Amino acid sequence: MREPMASDGVFEPETVAGDEQEAGSAAAEPLVEPDVNFDEHLYPARPKALRPTARRRQYYATRPSFEFDGRNAAYVEWLRNQAMLGDANALARQLSGQASMWQNSYAHPNPRAAVERAPVWFTAYPLSFITRSSQSFLSALGDPAMWEAFSEIGIRAIHTGPVKLAGGISGWSQTPSVDGHFDRISMAIDPVFGTEDEFRSMCQVAADHGGTIIDDIVPGHTGKGADFRLAEMNFRDYPGIYHMIDIPEEDWHLLPDVPEGQDSVNLSPDSEQALQKAGYIIGRLQRVIFYEPGVKETNWSATRAIVDTTGKTRRWVYLHYFKAGQPSINWLDPTFAGMRLVVGDALHSLVDLGTGALRLDANGFLGVEKSAEEQPGWSEGHPLSEAANQLIGSMIRKVGGFSFQELNLTIDDIKATSEAGPDLSYDFITRPAYHYALVTADTELLRLALRLSMEIGVDQASLVHALQNHDELTYELMHFAAGHRDEMFELAGQELTGAQLAEQVQQTMRERLTGENAPYNAVFTTNGIACTTVSFIMAALGVQDPDAITPEQEAQILDVHILLSMYNALQPGVFALSGWDLAGITALDRKSVEELTAQGDTRWINRGAHDIMGTSPDAKYSSSGMPRARSLYGPLPDQLQDPGSYARRLQQILAVREEHGIATGSLLDVPGVSHRGLLVMVIQLGSGALEVTVLNFSDQDIAGSIQSSHLVPGSAVHDLFSGASVGQVDDLHSFFLELPAFQGTALLLTEEDAAPGEEEGVEHGEVSP
């Protein structure tokens, strides 16, 4: 944190209004000449990199005070000099009126352009990434040797995860992040991860290898940093950043007392209802994320009493969809301060740091509105979220980047946002369904989810199909559990409402993946299962003791991991995987992270530290203190020496995907199957040819017909992995295929007698990955 500094100025009173109040004396200071960086050569339409200049001079307080509130002018100025809103305003002034802001189309999302630019992503997690001794996370991600390995495998982008300062401010001190650095408090890079120069160098190395760096912004909330502390002091525009309600002192009896040593307290349902009846807040919302009795029972918290810059003592109630340390941003305040803060953060990443894309975190919760009497407030699927996402996505495209969202809502909502907002959406549609397919050896739910997606109009090429990321295995199935809870669906021969279907799937997953069957995994609140891909597979295969895995079981785990990789990669859209996937990481013993999981956040067991390049084989912890987890596959340099390793088998899958343009194809059909463990996806490639992905989610060898009305009789069928001829489409629009247990393949249909490069003497249906 920067220490308070002295200057020859005088503390500026609060009475000034407008943008100039935020600039302070910066208007009189010369702007730093923009630097030319590699982005100009690749994307000449982008503006030159502009770094926010110092916005204001520092001031002594005219009446010194040791209070950490509005009475301490030096403290207020110290906060102003690190607030994100101030950085956003400074950056905006440097970009406004520039011709470069008008060189890119921005109105409509362009998912295929985004996929072509970055078709395969590595999703990093800073806290869990083991580096060489004294090497920073960002320096490690910019290591040319790692990028050479990635290029060889077929990985073309890195999603860094959040690396800017996060957490909060208490007095002069910074407090730690409460949610894995998603509670951002600054545009500055957190020194624990590296420096801005290392970030820019990483972008340069990525570009040298034909790659892209993807950063994060958080449109839904901040941490309790300088911006929130200034908002508590009612300083200028800052309260407008948040959903904050000033409660008059005569009604403080409606507020709970704040415990000693804390700065806020969560409202009980009774307090929430009382404040709603008094007309202050809209009350309960559609759900309480991170619900924990005695910790978070509602989405509202009350602050302690604090003196503002005029000497008035105030208490506020503020909204937080997530944890109490993550106050929600208000996208429809008259100051539009929240909008300015978020857009400024996005522009800083794109035009200053040099990234090519941004992930929008928690962007489905940007609107909130009072509902009918006795009904929860409207907080999901709100039109304001769509409007805000349109604005964010358009601004990112306007400067030459693309964006993606993790929007765990209904398929209808994902369709709506895909029409105007981010270019890509995380695949929460089929992710729990393909996990359920493996658990039950039945693809019925997966086929249902894919067909619903097609019927509603979601383009599979607009989705990010991922294995593991830093979160839990999410199984909320919001399309069924919320938006279509009363609609009837069929599953396993039963007619179920959407709500019943979701509960049945969730209960099956809980029973099979946690508890006695898999004590190494854990339920995460109401959202899903905390596990790695490997520990999920172990549970699905019935492994109860990870320490007693046999070589045969390890081989089967690898086969299943490849199967899940094929599902995500051999369809249109982005394919994403993590270091936990590349190294085959198992879940941590929960005792090793018990301090982190003490308040119910079990996801820390699936965030074990890993060393994908093998640079620190003796390290027991990451530099951030995460315990090292067990790796079944080993580091990439070793894997690349083994043709049967996960990395080498993945390389074959990605080579087929790249050569035939599967990522930018169109999903035409998900036909019925002759065996419940089969999944068939018929995809039209850009060339007009048909590709058919066939996967066996069961532990049985399958032989049967593959049938779809889109298959043209007389077409030759070729295996894209082996090069072998599989057969010919008959007059019933079908062909015969044999597929071993937990295997898959990609087939090309042509009207020629043989495909180029066809090999003879290879068994039909043999799959080299």
Verbal overview:
The two termini are about 50 Å apart. With about 775 residues, the chain is an alpha/beta fold. It has an 8-stranded parallel β-barrel, surrounded by 5 helices. A 6-stranded antiparallel β-sheet has the order 25-26-27-32-29-30. The longest helix has 19 residues, at about 550-570. Mean pLDDT is about 90; it is low at about 1-65 and about 755-765.
**Largest sheet, order of strands side by side?**
3-4-9-15-16-17-18-24
Which structural class do the helices and strands define? alpha/beta
Distance between the termini: 50 Å
How much of the residues is beta strand, in percent? 15-25%
Looking at the structure, what is the overall shape?
Answer: globular
Helix content: 25-40%
Q: Main beta sheet, described?
A: 8 strands, parallel, barrel
What's the gyration radius in Å?
27 Å
Count of helical regions: 23
Q: Mean of residue pLDDT?
A: 89
Region (Disordered): 1-27
Protein name: Trehalose synthase
InterPro entries: GH, Trehalose_synth
